[in-house]
Input
Amino acid sequence: MTKHTYSYYPGCSGQGTSMEYERSTRAVCEAVGINLDEIPDWSCCGSTPAHTVDHTLSAALSGRNLGLAAKQGHDCVLTPCPSCLTNLKTAGKHMAESETFKEKVNRLLDEPLETIPDTKSVLQVLFEDLGPDALAKKVARPLKGLKVVTYYGCILTRPPGLMDFDSEENPISMDKLMQAAGAEVLQFPLKTECCGASHGVARRDLVMRLSGKLLDMADSLGADAVVTACPLCQMNLDLRQGQVNSANNASYRLPIFYYTQLLGWALGLPDASLGLDKLCVDPRPALQSISANKEVA
Amino acid sequence: MYQELQRAPHTPSGLFTRAQNIPFAASRQQTPNRLPYAGMPSGDVMQVVNLTNSPDKTFMDRVMEESGQTISLCYQCGNCTASCPYTFGFDIPVSQVMRLLQTGQKETVLSSSSIWLCASCTSCTTRCPNNIDVAKVMDVLRHEARREGFVKERRVKAFFDSFLDSVRSHGRVFEMGLMVDYIRKTGRFWTDMELGPKMLPKGKLAFKPHNIQGRDAIARIFERFEKEGS
Output
């Protein structure tokens, strides 16, 4: 593929709780020739809380970033985070469709937004621009024997009219990338079920049940690991796995990877660039089983 | 969820009552009134809504205008409720929220937990056969609830508010500051205390906010929003 430069919106959690997603996303993109040009002085998209308060406020918080991205001169913004993706896309779409709405948003901004750049997930670009076949050729350390389930979460491909990528009911992009990297992808019926989202702090009881269901299914299918693309899903399943175990009288020990970490590992990138030590549930046994399989083969 | 409604009906007008307490329904005791619906606990009895109780006829129109969704198209297929991951925790299933909207039951809808617990997963929106963006309607109901002062899920609102206060102050979310502010707002000092020791050694918790250069610009967005409304 030809080298393409995109505006890059990392999102707030990438600076803290999902720093390993941010790190591995950059490492993988660099390794496969996708240039990420970080939006200078980007600000928070407002995430879920903003759109629960007001849609104009939410679009303005996203709009500032779209405006800064437009100045960079690239045709498209990439973000690894599905929540940021939803907000940036919703703001852009709604403003493009309604002049009245655009005016309302612009009244809240220092600099009115003229051109509205397109937004895509990093996953979409890795799947569509690079693709599984090209990826497979770059694999240096196949994930041979590693059984994974791919968990997309609620909003990476939904609603379809907004996201315009993969399938809203049975997405396959991560499955194909994982297979290309050599992993065995198990059929996971809860690919797009909700992990409980942002209620972990305020209503943990509800999240325990929803995330518990996901871990239970992954575990009963015999998965060695869960692969995610969302910082919030990953946090609920990984950081809160101990809480889920206590709440549900369970004893799961499932590593929860970001798909970029496993792709990076398969590409032979150094561990430090993938932030594997940042995961709460120790991923080393799962990764060692790959190495063991390789020696047998 | 329905048991809770029966213990303490949350509507002063008593919109939800056990079917057999209503004379009309009582006269039909012979016919089984345990029609099943998604999320219905076994052994529970169907709820009856008295539509003549203080409806606000302009309410649906307001929600339709703000959301841009034709709520009158909803014909109660129940796909949204069957798809909703939070139906088990809702006090009113989402399809019933839609029906209550059609009949102008403003107070019942705005004083529900459901509108705050909706996680915006958009399963409902994705599967609605009439292309109603149900998740957007739930969002607009939260806007209305804030305006009218209904907050059934105080902790959820406190978390959202702390989050936005953090964005307003720093331009980006400062996770540690957000948690401290949430605990200050709710008094729940033990919230997620056990997660600190898991995150600290990994260097995932920043102790200082990352203030962006344009944080004044972000504060101005909030100020203009408060002045202008939307």
